[in-house]
Amino acid sequence: MMSELFSVAKFYMLLILNIGIGTLGFIPSILITPINLDRFGLIGGSALSVVGEIFGALIGFCLYRYGAKHLPSAWQQQQWFQFFLRQKNGAVFFAVIAFRLLPFAPSGAVTAAAALTTISAPAFFWASSIGKLPALALEITLAFGMVFWLPQSLLYGVIGVGFVGMLLMALKRKRSSTKLNRQRR
Fold first, then answer.
1. Please, what is the average pLDDT of the chain?
2. Same domain assignment for residues 107 and 184
3. Is the domain of 83 the same as that of 167?
4. What digits encode the pLDDT tens for the residues 104-141?
5. Cα–Cα distance, 27 to 25 (Å, whole number)
6. Rounded to 5 degrees, what are φ and ψ at 158?
């Protein structure tokens, strides 16, 4: 009874974490997918990854759309944003699919750029889902191989190093952008 309760709690904690990572859009989901697979097997872990990615992107889209009016104009001059802003509605749908098919395209940039257009949330949901599924299948295959072949301690060590690396890169980027802002003044 108690182990079932812990299993359910673990599932919901991982679900929230997956949705959070999908919402943020800048943390690679390959860092959480092996944990999903290790804890809940191929079917349950894959379901966690897919739901987290798809609903995280939709939540991110809604948040970006809400915050778009507060986006700095310098961000809107970025290549990603300009590409999406030049597209007509139907073209945005297919552009989201195309960029989601690319496994290493920055998810947050695609989501934020799409949020600046007039594409509806349901259309974004379907385009994002269609595009993410093949990339997720590849990611799940890679992560399942890691779970299957690596000892658990090494697997979690690799994931930990990945998270620390992401944190250090984010801190370095923040520091360099702060320095650049000071120099401009």
1. 85
2. no
3. no
4. 677 888 898 888 888 999 999 999 999 999 988 988 99
5. 6
6. -65, -45
Residue 96 and residue 129 in one domain? yes
What residues contact 93, with CB distance under 8 A and at least 6 apart?
119, 123, 126, 127
25 and 112 both lie in a single domain? yes
Residue 38 confidence class, pLDDT cut points 50, 70, 90: very high
Contacts by 95-100 with C-beta closer than 8 Å and gap 24+?
96/124, 96/127, 96/128, 96/131, 97/127, 97/128, 97/130, 97/131, 98/131, 99/131, 100/127, 100/128, 100/130, 100/131, 100/132, 100/135
Whether 113 and 162 share a structural domain: no
String of b and e for 114-127 (b: at least 16 CB within 10 Å)? bbbbebeeebbbeb
Domain count within the chain: 2
